[in-house]
Every structure is written in C-alpha cells, then in structure tokens.
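Progress narrative, work stream C.
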Amino acid sequence: MNIALITARGGSKGLPGKNIHMLAGKPLLAWSIDAAKESGLFKEVYVSTDCPDIAVVAEKFGAKIIERPPEFATDNASSHVVIDHAIKELALKGSDKVMLLQPTSPLRTVVDIKQSFEIFEKNEKCSCVISVYEPDNTPAKAYKILESGEITGLVSSEAPYTRRQDLPRCFQPNGAIYLFSVDGFSQSQCIPKFGVFPYVMEEERSLDVDTLADMQKIEAYLQQK
C-alpha cells in the first residue's frame, strides 16, 4: 500500500497562514494534494496538522486528516516524529510505502511523483528516493573551516581549483519528495540515510515557500508557463 503524507502545521513565522495562502487560484496546500491524487498511486492522501483551518481546506480538496498533537507541531519538532506519529496512527505495515510531500513545494508534479516511484522500484538497493536539483554553483567547490581557522576544500583540497566538469556531480535536496518504506523508516526512526537514490528536478522548479516573496516568485513562474 502506498500513502501520501503531507505535513502542514499551523505556525509559520515567515508567512502567517502559509499553508492555506492562495497561490494562483487555490491554497498552497492544495497543489500537493491535487498532484498526489491525480497520480493515482496512493490508497489515501493524508494531511498531518494541528490547525483546524488547514484541516478544513485539506478535506475540501479530498485529503484525510491526521490530528497532530501540539508537542509535534512546535518549531523544534522534527519531521521524523511527525512521520512516526502518522505511521502509528495509520497502523502501517513494514512493506507499505510513504511519500512525504511538503506543501511548500508546489511545483512538484504528477510526473515527478510517478518517476520517483519508478526509481524506487527498479533499484534493488534503494531504501529511499529524495528529490534534488543540481545547482549552477556546485557545492563541490565549497570550503570548510578547520579547527585551526584555516579553510580547505569540502570535497578535497584541490576541488575549489578544479574545473566543474572534472568534479563529481553534486546535488541539493529541494524538499519536494521523500519516498521510503515503513521498514526503512522504522530501522532508524528517521528517513533512511543509506540506499538513497536521487530524483533530479530542475532548479527553477525547486523553489520552496517560506515568505511572501517566495510565493510571488512561484506565482510568476506559473504565469510564465
């Protein structure tokens, strides 16, 4: 069984009411619900929330609600405790698959969801698929600081001075998709860190909503497309 889990708490300092803020004619949250439902891959789409207003919107667009306890809806609560709570509330089995869809990534599409499942199914060693993008400024050229105060290349001492095409490809997570089995999560009580395969998205579709300015950028992108 596959389920989609959308985590949407009520508190947001950058943009109050963010998860139900209107984006191109519908609430931000609805973009993730619609993509999940339209994929046809999930038995149910669930929204984990502590907020009655978010619950009303989620149900309007066809999602089911997992009532999140207040202690799992603070600024310091990790996504791992929210996922664990959902797994227990739904009594999921080890072979069941969960796709975590953060509502702040509205540019994720049905195609992205389907292709992530294809990656998971075709790789025997896969325990998790994470959506990523390849930034123009590769992290392979970054520096790290040593205890002495010196800096050196993050990948190697030579990497900052090496041509990009001669460096390993590096990716940044964009938060749009996390796909894993319940067994994979339960082994360490977190999203698996080994056997992780990338689903590569374009950088322009990897925008994440935190502020009103982010929302405006995404709306401009949608209008352009």
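Work stream C, second folded protein:
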Amino acid sequence: MIPVERAESFYLPPPDQPPDAWALVPAAERVFRWAELRQQRRLTPPDGFIVGHLVYARINHNRWVADCPCGSAQVVTPSDPRFACTECGAGWFRLVVPDDPAAAEAAVANELPHERNWWNPDDPSPWGAPSEPAPVETEREATAS
C-alpha cells in the first residue's frame, strides 16, 4: 500500500542537508522553509490565527491538501492542524481534519495514487459534490435579449 503523502514527508530539506535537518520544524511550518529555498524569497510564518474561518483538509491525488481563500493550495498534514498561505501571507487558519485520518486514507487505499481523492463531508465547498450544470443559452435566446 502506498501511503498518502503528508507535509512532513513532502516538504523536505535540500539534498545538501541531512534528511533530519528540519526534524524540529513543525510540519505546518515546513512549507515556509521549502518555499524560501525554491522561490528565493524570505518567508516568515505568521504570528496569529485568523479567527472564524476554517480550512478543510482533503486528499487530492494521494496528498493531504488544503486551499487558501486566495486560491492557492499546499500539502498539509493531519498531525499539525494549521494552515498558513505562503502566497498571500494570510495568517494561520484552523485546519479541519477528520477525527480518524487513517480511515480517510484507508478509504482511498485501493485506488491508483492519481485517483485517490477524499473530501470532508462537512466541507461546504463544492469539491466533492456534483455541481449542477449551468443553463446553456441557445443562440436564439442570446440574440433575443
């Protein structure tokens, strides 16, 4: 069985550093180190939390991910339920993870990694819910209005 990718195994130090160089960096903060190295810009994790806004973790193509309200996304982990955006700089959001992350991972275990997707049933976003198609306007209706 291929494990679902989490932030602590996705955001790793560069090859010229020991594999455990970031062992003391909390999993939710590793994205800042990783992005700093790859984007060559100074990034500092935020100091405070954004109260009243929740971000839901989901499994997308075999990775735990979360989406920022700005449209950016990053790999997250159920072991550190925080999310802060390296793109827009938004502060820490509370990351909603399932009570039993192992059960969510087991639910997708028999699928190919690129087909492994799980959505939190409490997430109000339309990711997992089938959307109704938008009404199609015919050429006749378009010219009449």
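The longest strand covers residues 49-56. No further action is required on this item.
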